[in-house]
């Protein structure tokens, strides 16, 4: 029985290892810390593997463990952690919410087929990674899980023990902050739309 459990666990881990590392890297922003986070999470998952009722739910389950391990351990290891400001909203200089769509939807751009696509195609991958890493933790975690790992609002809300409305709100605010950051970097680099 123990040998069968071990093989199932190994199989599940092998299927999700790339995703686990990718999420850990987005959370920690450091390759070595990401490896440590994955290792700690695998150990925790092994200890609690019997609590997983359905093997098909392994991926969200292990990603929840990674996220919770990061939140409870790695953030608190900093000597002076930054407190999370849950009321923070991405705002421009005038105090308004920033929207990439509104910035792109000026009359001279309307005749172009897809200005947003042209804009994204002009950005460098490193700029996108830097912009994502610059997001505060509560937004970066939700954006990473929803957008990069294609988890649903419900799965993310359950993973983070949040109401679904809070998960959606954080995703929306995170997207807005990310759009604004990318828009500003593109303007700084001289990209023209």
- Bulk shape: elongated
State Rg: 19 Å
Largest sheet: none
What structural class should be given to the helix and strand makeup?
Answer: mainly alpha
Low-confidence stretches: 79-95, 104-112
CATH superfamily of the largest domain: Winged helix-like DNA-binding domain superfamily/Winged helix DNA-binding domain
Q: How many discrete structural domains?
A: 2
Write down the CATH class of the largest domain. Mainly Alpha
InterPro entries: RNA_pol_sigma-70-like (IPR039425), RNA_pol_sigma-70_dom (IPR014284), RNA_pol_sigma70_r2 (IPR007627), RNA_pol_sigma70_r4_t2 (IPR013249), RNA_pol_sigma_r2 (IPR013325), RNA_pol_sigma_r3/r4-like (IPR013324), WH-like_DNA-bd_sf (IPR036388)
Protein name: RNA polymerase subunit sigma-24
Domain RNA polymerase sigma-70 region: 13-78
Family: Belongs to the sigma-70 factor family. ECF subfamily.
Set out the fold topology.
Layout: H1 2-28, H2 31-47, H3 58-74, H4 100-104, H5 115-122, H6 125-133, H7 137-148, H8 153-160, H9 164-188
Question: What structural keywords apply?
Answer:
193 residues; RNA_pol_sigma70_r4_t2; 66% helix; Arc Repressor Mutant, subunit A; Rna Polymerase Sigma Factor, Chain: A; RNA_pol_sigma-70_dom; 0% strand; transcription regulation; single chain; mainly alpha
């Amino acid at each position: 029985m123990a040998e069968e459990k071990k093989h199932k666990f190994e199989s599940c881990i092998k299927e999700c290892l790339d995703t686990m590392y990718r999420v850990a890297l987005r959370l920690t922003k450091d390759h070595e810390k990401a490896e440590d986070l994955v290792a700690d999470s695998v150990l925790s998952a092994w200890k609690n593997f019997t609590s997983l009722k359905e093997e098909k739910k392994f991926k969200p389950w292990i990603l929840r463990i990674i996220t919770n391990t990061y939140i409870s351990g790695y953030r608190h290891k900093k000597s002076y952690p930054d407190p999370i400001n849950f009321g923070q909203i991405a705002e421009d200089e005038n105090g308004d919410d920033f929207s990439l769509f509104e910035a792109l939807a000026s009359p001279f751009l309307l005749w172009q087929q897809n200005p947003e696509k042209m804009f994204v195609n002009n950005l460098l991958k490193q700029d996108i990674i830097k912009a994502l890493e610059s997001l505060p933790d509560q937004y970066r975690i939700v954006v990473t899980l929803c957008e990069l790992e294609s988890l649903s609002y419900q799965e993310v809300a359950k993973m983070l023990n949040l109401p679904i409305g809070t998960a959606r709100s954080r995703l929306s605010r995170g997207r807005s902050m990310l759009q604004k950051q990318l828009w500003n970097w593109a303007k700084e680099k001289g990209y023209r739309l």
